Amino acid sequence: MVTMKEISAQAGVSVSTVSLVLNNRDKGRIKPRVAAQIRQVARDLGYRPNLMARSLKTSHTHILGFLSKEVATTPYAGPIILGAQDAASQYGYVIMTVSADDPRSSEETEISALERYGVDGFFLAEMSNRKAQVPSSLQNYPTVLVNATDGHPASSTTPNQIHHTGIAPDERLIGYDATMRLIHAGCTRIAYVGCSEPMLAEGLRLEGYKEALREAGLPFDSSLVTAVLNNGPALHSVRELIETQHPDGIFCFNDARAWYVYDTAARLGLTIGKDISVVGVDNHRIFAETLEPQLSTVELPHYEMGYWAACKLISMIEPERELDFSTSPRPLRATLPPLDSEGDVLIHCSLVDKNSVITQ
Amino acid sequence: MVTMKEISAQAGVSVSTVSLVLNNRDKGRIKPRVAAQIRQVARDLGYRPNLMARSLKTSHTHILGFLSKEVATTPYAGPIILGAQDAASQYGYVIMTVSADDPRSSEETEISALERYGVDGFFLAEMSNRKAQVPSSLQNYPTVLVNATDGHPASSTTPNQIHHTGIAPDERLIGYDATMRLIHAGCTRIAYVGCSEPMLAEGLRLEGYKEALREAGLPFDSSLVTAVLNNGPALHSVRELIETQHPDGIFCFNDARAWYVYDTAARLGLTIGKDISVVGVDNHRIFAETLEPQLSTVELPHYEMGYWAACKLISMIEPERELDFSTSPRPLRATLPPLDSEGDVLIHCSLVDKNSVITQ
DNA sequence: CTGTTAGCGCTTTCAC
DNA sequence: GTGAAAGCGCTAACAG
């Protein structure tokens, strides 16, 4: 690793001059010719600043700590991290990841590890949308929740608790949009296959479903609603729902639950997208690549949430900095909320139309 | 952040004494009473070392750089990172992640970012098993490939290229074990549903399939073999294979392809695990939680590869250090190769028996 | 046994 | 315009 000292020797100037020039603070201070020469030498020697040393002085590391729960078992971590990374890398930051669900070392231990490296701020990422408890050790850091909202009420009795910014899918709108899609396709007996595990998303998507029905003047019929978990029991519940209630459209809590509809349809000789319409939630790659006909589904914007969260975090760390979504390295598949949003920020998820809804 | 200086003041000793004690180098040098007092003060003040400062001095950051390709679109990143993190955290390391598939910033840029932070070594992770080209900028760092092997031949004509250690699934054995499972269940017409995309795993799993057939004295019949991609076309190929060839067992390249068998079975009124047996590869959570009957499948040990790779990397950085797999925070679902393995290390994946294979 | 000193690579104030 | 000097928090060689 070549240092400023070597450059200064080579260029016959002092280290401080080198520092000034390489940090572009030379305008009107250092003679242009000298500056140019220093830059040249730096380039020739392949100089790269030692960020540890810089951080020590500036106490500003440009490291963002990414703390995630349940990475082990869910497939969503990748896209969220990637989104955060893309934004970070764009603005000269880097991400240090730790997981908060190690059965042995506690969350506090992991946070502490990141603190010792002097991270400038934290992400707290959940793998399914929930109200998260922000550890008190993060109170003094810029912190953004990803796929979560702050579980600590804003108007709390414990007054010195900060209500942290968090970004999460607008679950109610997911239910509303998905159901509306079926309504607009002409479905009139629309079932909902929910999730029997307690999840924030479940109640909200169901609400959205009801709201869409109401708005369309369709009756809410609880016998068209079921909540299932996994594998056989789930499949049987869905099969029974379809066989006894004969819905013409089904809104499923997620793509996995839509699979039960596909399987049942195959068994009953029904054609998805013709005899029965289905809308899922997730647009998970695995289902997107596998199901036939392809499933119309509301995409959960994990990449986008990661991207937004990183932009938000950077803007909290450097309030004066101008950030711009339009320069994201990958296309954003959902409209990001403005960066000055605070508190619980909801993102409107896109419905991806494929072939599982009837076309009139 | 409380510093050693504050502790030294509080305890009435010099900073170097504090340093000695807090790094446990005080035995036989510092009076036990003084040492104890220093430790007490440190605890009272909640001292935590500034790792940046330490690194500056020791040029040893305890940061591992994790460089991954294709994180965007695959669900495997989480488990690999988690495995690496668990090992890292256990041995006092931390992981900095960057992705090498940003369409704009190049791999070199990302590596460079990690280098500037002084990472002690690199992971190079692929999302599907392949021969990876290790960037020349990593030649001088301890580097371990994850889910990949070094694409640069060991006996190369370019002599000063190092052949890096990489860990990857033993694909041939996957094909062999899966097929053997079907053979032992009594299947005699065993089909293979492969992947039509060029992938390292495809050829090797097919080889393992053939080898198992040969060993069992079953003929290889190319009309029982197909290679498919996604969605409709894949489903139709599988359906045709089943309808024309009537296999009694099917080894599928992965769980997703097994779904085509499930769908076809549902349509034809065949019962999986009775009329027809299926073995997949992946044990992907999404299929594990969804399919009914549950799919017997060879598990790809992403967590384990990440864990092994981190242990390997740490042992390269600190050769004298004693590492021990038995202390992993999560159960290891595959037997890890010994840590002194070099070059292309293959991991024997476990076949997870569920209910998609006939029981006699 | 413990303190002094120097220095890791960089930034920044203040003299010249 | 440029350099000298101090110091970020820590480690380590060397004195005492």
TrEMBL record, chains A, B:
Do you know which InterPro entries this protein is assigned to?
HTH_LacI, LacI/GalR-like_sensor, Lambda_DNA-bd_dom_sf, Peripla_BP_I
Q: Does the keyword DNA damage apply?
A: no
Task: Return the SMART domains for the record.
Answer: HTH_LACI
Keywords from UniProt, A to Z, are: DNA-binding, Repressor, Transcription, Transcription regulation
Every copy of the HTH lacI-type domain together lies at 2-58
Signal sequence bounds: none
Q: Which is one GO molecular function term here?
A: transcription cis-regulatory region binding
CDD domains annotated for this entry?
Answer: HTH_LacI, PBP1_sucrose_transcription_regulator
Name by which UniProt lists this protein: LacI family transcriptional regulator
* Organism this protein belongs to: Alloscardovia macacae
Q: What broad taxonomic lineage does this protein's source fall under?
A: Bacteria, Bacillati, Actinomycetota, Actinomycetes, Bifidobacteriales
